[in-house]
Input
Amino acid sequence: MTEQTSVRVEGHGGQLALAALKPFGVTELFTLSGGHVFPLYDAARADGVKIIDVRHEQSAVFAAEAVAKLQRRPGLAVLTAGPGVTNGVSGITSAYFNGSPVIVLGGRAPLFRWGAGSLQEIDHVPLVAPVTKHAATVTATADVAAAVREATLVALRPHRGPVFLDFPLDVIYDKSAADVPTTSTVDSIEPDPDEVAKAAALLAAAQRPVIIAGSDVYAGDAIAALREAAEALQIPVFTNGMGRGSLPPGHPLAFTKARRAALKGADVVAVVGTPLDFRLNFGDFGEATVVHIVDAPSQRAKHVTPAVSPAGDLRVILSALADHRGVRADHQDWIDQLRQVEDAARAAEVAELEADTDPIKPSRIYGELRKILDPDAVTIGDGGDFVSYAGRYLEPAQPGTWLDPGPYGCLGTGMGYAIGARLTYPDRQICVLLGDGAAGFSLMDVETLVRHRLPVVMVVGNNGIWGLEKHPMQALYGYDVAADLQPGLRYDTVVEALGGAGETVSKPADLAPALRRAFDAGVPYLVNVLTDPADQYPRSSSLA
Ligand SMILES: Cc1ncc(C[n+]2csc(CCOP(=O)(O)OP(=O)(O)O)c2C)c(N)n1
Ligand SMILES: [Mg+2]
Output
């Protein structure tokens, strides 16, 4: 008996679209209502696909992105024609920068009178084409399922990223039939074995090697292979993005604080699954030989020429490093040297984490959170300096638990990411770290969290300013403009008004009990911490 690999689906465009997504495990869609996309809602309602309706399309796309990042499967946002789509563009762009497989299905003014001036009529495709892997209009109902399936496979194929399709109103409301495949296999890219062997030989023979592993290691399900490679070759590992926590804290090769010393002293740096961008000094590590391991040829850096850059399935490449049988240098002295730096830096931070000052230092908030957060808690950073501190002081214990906005640096991810995280993990702690400025972008979507019974904890580092802008502007000009917010604003009562709860904290001793109440609350709960506006995150230059 041959296995059935497709099903016959008859129905309107919405039914055909969702049927195509079903094999990929899409169980929910994020949206804000619009008549242009009603058939997608109709299909979701009939098929048991959860509809999470938000208060701004940007949150819908960020929520879909969180699902995509955390669950390594497509996240779906449905945006109505015109302003619905344009409001989603920052979210789509973030997903593009992050390599997240987000599927955006848009409404579109009717095809039969295109150009006559229908409500919300605009051609979205050229607007989103530069920030998607694929963007197109589906012009016939019979093509809907095939177009959605092909777009989804494009989104999932490394290097992953968002795709966009829009459906003219007459096309999506009309009916047709299609054979819809039930398979979900995604082609993988085989790396060039010679390049892999060269990378392995360089790393194994190095005296002072370092690995930096990023989000694609998690996205490519290559965490175990990373650990095997590091252990086999005895190489210290640093991480960023979703790669944070790849090696558990306490692992002899896991490092966070000694990065500067490591990159300064290294003779070979292998960057795996993350671009050689501003976060990594644009791939310039002084004298060190650079190995850039990427999940697809498109991800090879164009602004620098690494010694070798294997491209393909990261599990295959990292397993090959683990299996390397050639010359291997001993790295124990190097590991010991970095461990000393790491331990000293950690000891130096204790005073910051325990700072008993009035007003509260942001570092103290993290000192308290470190004691309260479970190892599998998901933490989400949305803000400036306050989130830089989170990156420094919170150490995710498991990979895939840290959601930052990524290299596009878009403020406003907070509530969207929180929605996606809570849906993914109904029972874990979900903690959103918000600058007070950042909070303004998405706080209205606490209403969505309340309506859909998605409790999360929000902690606002409320310094009354756009800190990451105010301090540099002062340094540059000796004055600042457009950098002040209302001091002491009660973001907690905003959340109360929206149906959640919260409190304001101004003394260090009150932090721990407030945070405990927040995690026990069972409703969206905001701890509004009044922090010191004079405090600034120490960085060499914030305009790099
Ligand atoms: C959408 C968007 N607008 C503006 C910026 C520029 N920006 C980066 S950090 C920052 C300040 C953030 O302030 P806040 O959230 O209060 O955090 P703080 O630095 O005060 O801790 C701004 C305005 C941005 N990154 N994204
Ligand atoms: Mg602020």
